[in-house]
């Protein structure tokens, strides 16, 4: 069950994210899609729909498609975010604007249900001829997600009807000789599953499963290339692992290729594993989860270490300065984690989900919500970041907008639907996965209503209150205890309890209206030691407090960070009164190396004692250009 | 004065290199050029000359050009190396083979003197139309160097005559409207200067200077592109800094672009600065020297940190695992350094020349002389090196041959002419730059003959003996004292002397026949601390002994190197009886981290004491595939 609509957020860290999305990002995106922002890269996304409508209505159009071939998806993600925004905070103007866009989309839809502005405007004969590269199923998937969200949040069915027609024509098309097809960029699979959940139409679920099952089982990409009349951009199929098509999904053991594609695919695989009970599909999901989280994950929750292909590489290849770690990939990891939590209760899934949310994703958005990182390095040095061939993808400052604008609307749709990730519900248990202040109301369905008060991730205390519990139901409250919390106290109505930790959760049973559950987490700042197999990190440590990764920025440390080493045994102090992004900084004793002219010297550097100030990683690059580093060397 | 022919090498480290070149590399290259090696990449270089000859003689040819557009230069570099080889060790068979090749080259030369097989065979109308990319002046330059070497070493003038005709036609061509031209890949400039030194023809020197002066002063590359009938491979001129054409050479302050191009250009600039006394050209050379050696140099003497463009990037951007550090670039740095030494005496030039020779260059050739590295990383980890997109250029084992075969013949021509780098001669002084055992005989020209006995770089003692000194000349022996030698003893006839160190050299005057000069260098192994500005190295140290950089290889260290940390204060011990490449290994106390499953953990690693074995960097990858690392973390 999706508890998104049952949750109302209170104040705190996540409320800030939701508010930024509603008040800044979504309105900004709207203006961007309409090309109303001076100085930003042109989007043309709405204009593409206008042209497609004109083409439908007159057989020709004045103007041509502009932008990425997946430009439609920017509109879709904005619509999905806008839907959540309307639910969180009704807004008649926005609702009208959404309706206008949906009406335009309907005009852009072809008679047989086909919807894609690139192919309608620019390559009318080429539809479904280059699934590997053309992203039309990707765009359709995002529009399906938007359609379901709009229907859930506003009751509007117009887009849902549009996308049902598109899905229906897809079901017709992808049978018989086309049943070996699958898209280059997974997304439609999880979207079709969502559409099936919303409509009950099993053929959508079946098509999702068909795409998943077909993937990597044939030379479909080559077959596409060899066909007459195909729209071709690349002359070869390249490396099929780039799009996880190198082998059948059930035989895939390593997370490879384009990271966003990977986690979108794995999310859909998890959906379908749950739906079908297919043990081999579930096993593949678990294996791929472990591949990511045990060997290919940045400490920030970022994934995809290579800028080339925006891709996973090999185990333990996690460079800090050239990291790609795309914001969208961390978001996709959250999607995957959330679905794994539906399949089995496991603290590891929620721990990773939280790690990605508070670090790798949140760093993608400026504190004021107005600029965005696509790429999230763990080290950025002026003169290097952005300035060498190998660092050309790295920015030291967030950009207003991108030619490829996938990340900002992706963050917006996540931040406006966090209840879905905070809570999980089974027949007899409410699972508190993330600690987001607010209230979960499942009275109608489960006979329980729970409020959570907390200052987390700044404060260490979670205060659950059973607002109401129907006495004829015996609901259990399961609270995740993060693996990093070494000493955790759990109290019921102020009394300690001997609740047992099972798979990362404590289960609190027989709660009654008015009962309180207090969880006190161990949020002492901690030093994090990387595996020695991560070459980039050897001899270095990172710092965390709770779910937050910290980093050193030059602005707090006399300008430079590369000259800093931390003292191995020093306590890490929290600077309760010195906050950034409403989160306290940390301080640890260390050393600063003196400047020297020698590139290499037999003379050791001259060290002076230095108090090193650390800020939460999500807040870096919010005070002008400054060097930044997460992993700092230890000096004995 | 070029003292190459005055020097006869004795036994020792460099003799091994010379012997490998003569006995292994040069014969191997010969077979490669003739396509006689099974399983190696086809060269076709000799065949290209045959086709060009056929084209000249009949107006058509059966077959077509194959290989890089600069394939001719492989033949040229082999000829140059063969010339030196013939001087070091006469060999009638090789000499005949050389004569055969030269005769073939003459047949491939067009009537007007033009020589280039690519344009003769494949693009007859395109000569000199794409200097930016076509490498025809680069090929001509290498052939000029070969011609001069053959004449110097064997007295043969046939190739010299051929290349004089080519140079003459170039002088005619590159005047008037073509006087703004300059080649994309510098090389012909230093070659024309060498040809001028051999022939006394000042127009060759003047053309070299013209190319240097024209470089970066106009939009010549664009002009070339815009012309009709041009042979075009790239549609745009790209980044002119790639070929050091972004500004006039006298205004260049940072070493940028393709590293081999850069140092070949700077070497020619130094030649011409010395020839003309042009202070602004000399100043540019010094500035560029400092840019390299103070901010853009690997500790191994490698240069060019980026695989993309094989190029310099920015100051202090010196990654270890993705280093390019091409063997040819380190060789080119030696060329540049040697020429700077002609301009001013300075230990820094010879120190760097020696660093590159004993590390960055020598590592390019296997201990058996039969396989070669193009790329010389300072860290290579199995499963990463060669296996990720960013490490695709890195190899863990040397290859037999390359499609682009520039490095092996370049090393061969260097190793067979080391006398040129070991000694320098001015009117009144013999300079001992490198300590290569052997004898310098300048009796005819300078009235002095000096022998050097030494086990350097294994032994620490240099034993100079004045074999003969004419009493009517007052020659000085100047011996470089490396900057790394903290305590150096200099004795004349066994007695200490109070000789003063001036610019890195001690000057020993009034030596007579039979006198000995003994220099005892401080060759205690030393820990090398990188500048804190080199992000990749922070918290890590390297080890050197004398001019040799050391590294840890898995094969000596229980398989892994990433789990090793060195103890900051531990003495480094020399393992006199445990050698590789005839050089003792080192050992230093340190720690080995235990294996762990956690990617990141709040628990510190479990460390056990470990004696870490280090081998000289030049000898890595000679015992099968093994992880390797130069910079090791220190753990207090």
List keywords for this structure.
homodimer, 636 residues, alpha+beta, ten-stranded antiparallel β-sheet, seven-stranded antiparallel β-sheet, 23 strands
Walk me through what this model shows.
2 copies of one chain form a homodimer. The first copy, chain A, has 18 helices and 23 strands. In chain A, helix 3 runs parallel beside helix 16 and helix 14 runs antiparallel to helix 15 (347-361). By secondary structure, the first copy, chain A, is α+β, with helices and mostly antiparallel strands. Helix content of chain A is 36%, strand content 17%. Strand 20 of chain A pairs antiparallel with strand 14 of chain B.
Rg of chain A, rounded, reads 25 Å
Strand proportion of chain A, as a percent range, falls in: 15-25%
Oligomeric state of the chains present here? homodimer
Largest β-sheet summary of chain A: 10 strands, antiparallel
Separation of termini of chain A?
52 Å
- Briefly note the structural class of the backbone of chain A: alpha+beta
Stretches of chain A where pLDDT is under 50 for at least 5 consecutive residues are: none
Mean pLDDT of chain A: 95
Helix content of chain A: 25-40%
The total beta strand count of chain A reads: 23
Shape of chain A: globular
Concise synopsis of the structure shown:
The structure is a homodimer of 636-residue chains. Chain A has 636 residues and is an alpha+beta fold.
